[in-house]
Amino acid sequence: MSLSSLSTHDLQRDLIVSRLTARFSAELSRDCRQQVPCSPSRSVSMSPSISLPVTQSIYLPRNPKQNNFLSPAKLYQKEHFLCKSVKNEKDSHAISLGNSSTFSVGTKFQLDDVIEAQQFDREILSAIFEVAREMEKIEKSSSGANILRGYLMATLFYEPSTRTRLSFESAMKRLGGEVLTTENAREFSSAAKGETLEDSIRTVEGYSDIIVMRHFESGAARRAASTASIPVINAGDGPGQHPTQALLDVYTIEREIGRLDGIRVGLVGDLANGRTVRSLAYLLAKYNDVKIYFVAPDIVKMKDDIKDYLSSKGVEWEESADLMEVASKCDVVYQTRIQRERFGERIDLYEEARGKYIVDKKVMGVLQKHAVILHPLPRLDEITVDVDGDPRAAYFRQAKNGLYIRMALLKLLLLGW
Amino acid sequence: MSLSSLSTHDLQRDLIVSRLTARFSAELSRDCRQQVPCSPSRSVSMSPSISLPVTQSIYLPRNPKQNNFLSPAKLYQKEHFLCKSVKNEKDSHAISLGNSSTFSVGTKFQLDDVIEAQQFDREILSAIFEVAREMEKIEKSSSGANILRGYLMATLFYEPSTRTRLSFESAMKRLGGEVLTTENAREFSSAAKGETLEDSIRTVEGYSDIIVMRHFESGAARRAASTASIPVINAGDGPGQHPTQALLDVYTIEREIGRLDGIRVGLVGDLANGRTVRSLAYLLAKYNDVKIYFVAPDIVKMKDDIKDYLSSKGVEWEESADLMEVASKCDVVYQTRIQRERFGERIDLYEEARGKYIVDKKVMGVLQKHAVILHPLPRLDEITVDVDGDPRAAYFRQAKNGLYIRMALLKLLLLGW
Amino acid sequence: MSLSSLSTHDLQRDLIVSRLTARFSAELSRDCRQQVPCSPSRSVSMSPSISLPVTQSIYLPRNPKQNNFLSPAKLYQKEHFLCKSVKNEKDSHAISLGNSSTFSVGTKFQLDDVIEAQQFDREILSAIFEVAREMEKIEKSSSGANILRGYLMATLFYEPSTRTRLSFESAMKRLGGEVLTTENAREFSSAAKGETLEDSIRTVEGYSDIIVMRHFESGAARRAASTASIPVINAGDGPGQHPTQALLDVYTIEREIGRLDGIRVGLVGDLANGRTVRSLAYLLAKYNDVKIYFVAPDIVKMKDDIKDYLSSKGVEWEESADLMEVASKCDVVYQTRIQRERFGERIDLYEEARGKYIVDKKVMGVLQKHAVILHPLPRLDEITVDVDGDPRAAYFRQAKNGLYIRMALLKLLLLGW
């Protein structure tokens, strides 16, 4: 069992799949629309911007499902369903949130599950972020807070993660949906009586409309998604993936800095074990002219697979031991916690690594005015508390953005674009 | 403390009570209506079937309550309340779901609590199943999802049972109700500070409208029900009863096979300890021309009390060691898990018992086309996973039926028929 | 770490603050209204009583907050905000519950947080109790059950207290609000990964509109309140405070006896460690002609700080070893549990203390007809169960009053008066 959340194999597969997807996607959606033009078109307008007719896209029963995201096969299946059978029962809940005039969603892809960072390309990210922005408005105005009324989300947590759970549950409830909670799902399943994850999923999908799952085993989310006929969101599967964290990180950079192309990002701290920094580096490679600085104690340096991937994508990167210098150049300093649990008995190594790169007032002194400090939280003392009051300390805003991203994903998975 | 959920004593008591009930019921309801005709009558129609005027029956405050279900005393008390004081406050929530023209509910009985399988006779089962069918429609259409809006259910679980808890909570929320959850009620009560169950119930009834209780002690549900002035549903009390499981099992047979009279049922696996098979055998005795086959390793054979009861009711039964032969004859094969926890240190005996009767492709090969495999879940390897895809594998549909039965019971206990 | 919930220091501070508050409050509110008359006035009428124009008071964003309740500084800040920036987003939820014609709320104070008994004076208590009375009506009629629709309460419990948690969650849901629950918040925070309480609060405030916190450390609630920009309610912080219990105790006395001035109250049991009796004595000192009797085993006698405080306030008090005599004189006998956990290894001392003063049928025999027995629950055998049926046994009604007080506080903190 590897600790790396993005294996070299994954990274290569990703290149192939994404190319295939683009080609098939265009062909299939064109074919489908010409042959079976059942999807109603309608004008949607909520803002003064020009609204174009967009294809209405609706959450569909997906049974059987295949376990490849946005692959040609799934795309075909999806379009096929779209034109053949539509789950009408809960349409009335669906409202359109006003799509941008430039991005014609609905004709290109449909989110089935959220399992790993690799399933998102630049275009999908942009579309999700647009929805997340709408969610910020909804949360503040409470006017659209009913779009998920009547929907039930099950939070199936096989290991506790109160922060992530509350964020998802808040997202669901802010949209008018309801939640079934379990924090000790281990007792539900195999640990207690030997039931397989698959059987548990088949039971829970009978009680709910969407499953948010946290698991202690890498790959568990993928297994759940391939079993479930309702959408599954991976809320972290052991050392594997935590894709909603990856999305909120990129979203936060765009919100704080205003762009993703051309940014300079310093990744600091535990770069070997931190799945967040690995996913972030992976996703940043989708943008142009990005430069990444790695600042880590030797014992937890960024691994070669990510470095190779960045190079293959033409992303400039550099290792540095000088946090001050990096901080003075970057738009984003992404600090992370040195994870004690990775060091076992070697407390001495942990203590050494942990004190090495601290974001404090001195670092803030050289940080550019427009730049920000991010952190996936929880934070120990790798950012000193006297930094919290600085407007460039963006980590609590980042946590809040997790709410908007999760609202957006719940909306997209349950109602479509 | 006996492990049998249906003691011989219970079974005998049942015979006496049910006869008394029928007689008193008819008399009392007639008396009540003649003397104090306060219950409004109204026509209810939702289907094209002919609708008859039915008596409106409303959830009533029941204080003090007595601890015998549908007994003459309780019936009298109930009718008395019906005609004297009606809790008006939440009437507005009540909607009629359309009663069958042949079953005139409301004049015969009112469910106060759901404590044990013995409280249900054939007529009540039929009436509950009818409501459960309506619930299937409600869950799918989401049109009637508000009938329990404003009601609060407390899930008071003194031992964890995530599957059962989620099923009840989903049922409540699908009907628009709300839930107060506690999974570690032991900390709430005696275990921590020595409070009695009765005191805990008196507190919780102040916070909610209905209590769903799971407890580790046989008889706890009955104690709770006799204390509470709001309805109590037993979600399993230790080795005692789990009546909603028994109801969903019978409901599933009717849904899958289309009838209950004249069916042949094979009960397989741990028949000594499994409370579900014991309750199922008990309830099946209420139907005509039923034949039951017991297929169990010697060490966990069906006990004599149930066999005697079946014989006294004229139900044919037979023990068999040949699962293939039984499977070829039956309409329903009800497989159960051999419960390791019953074997203590004797792992060898457990392993021997466990491998003996497996439902696999070979068994499916001899199973009749219209027959089904049931299982209360969780399932280990007593049904092989390659059976899951067979349309006759009905155990996940069975789990789903638990939702409809629980929706029906919540509706009946809170709003009446 | 002291076990006393109301230190002498607190009691002195209280005297000073309350005087300052009264003076500044009058001045500031007058100034504010004259200079910046932005607060709209409107007539509110729900009852046949004469309604006066009252100033509308709205929940406000409070950032930064200061950690002194109703102090001049906070009052100024509050009024300042009231007149400058109003959080409009959720106004539509706010409904007026009909204010008494004699108490012009909104012009005098605004509740920001509920942290300790000392923040309440007689006038505030009276105003809260009035709202609690309205809540009794709302709970029964379910007509106003939507006033908190769209609001999210986070119950952040760092130690389990199912009773208190369910009471708060029921209160929130009875008013149409939603709840994010965590019972094992220790895993959320420092205990697991070393996160500070302050960081946890900053995260949770992004997901919710109000935080109800239970903590194992005295002073934790105050720290949380000074961090959060949303309201915080202390649901018990270790040996510190449990202010909502104190409020419901006083409310219950008023509801049961009909008045607070002139009452005679016997406090019985563990008076040294019980924070409820200490807070109750403190709050009773705000009323006229109160007489308090202390009946406790020597080892758990009421401490001098409270006695001195009562004397300084002119409250008559007396120690007695004769429960029968006290019971015959009092309007209220407030029994408490001897807390075993306080005695450590000295089980003998515990057993001796515990059996000393029992409220039983004999005590009920001398109790006046209008008098009542109260108890904060859970109860062991310091009140015998044969007393429960006596109408003067008011402890379960008292528990129920906790619901109304908490409904009132949630309403006041989220919507204002």
Automatic annotation (TrEMBL), chains A, B, C:
One of its GO terms (biological process) is 'de novo' pyrimidine nucleobase biosynthetic process. Gene3D superfamilies: Aspartate/ornithine carbamoyltransferase (3.40.50.1370). Residues 261-412 form the Aspartate/ornithine carbamoyltransferase Asp/Orn-binding domain. GO terms for cellular component: cytoplasm. Its EC number is 2.1.3.2. Pathway: Pyrimidine metabolism; UMP biosynthesis via de novo pathway; (S)-dihydroorotate from bicarbonate: step 2/3. Residues 113-254 form the Aspartate/ornithine carbamoyltransferase carbamoyl-P binding domain. It catalyses: carbamoyl phosphate + L-aspartate = N-carbamoyl-L-aspartate + phosphate + H(+). The keyword Cytoplasm does not apply. One of its GO terms (molecular function) is amino acid binding. Keywords: Allosteric enzyme, Pyrimidine biosynthesis, Transferase. It is an enzyme of class 2 (transferase). It comes from the Eukaryota. Transmembrane segments: none annotated. Homotrimer. Belongs to the aspartate/ornithine carbamoyltransferase superfamily. ATCase family. Catalyzes the condensation of carbamoyl phosphate and aspartate to form carbamoyl aspartate and inorganic phosphate, the committed step in the de novo pyrimidine nucleotide biosynthesis pathway. This is aspartate carbamoyltransferase. It comes from Amborella trichopoda.
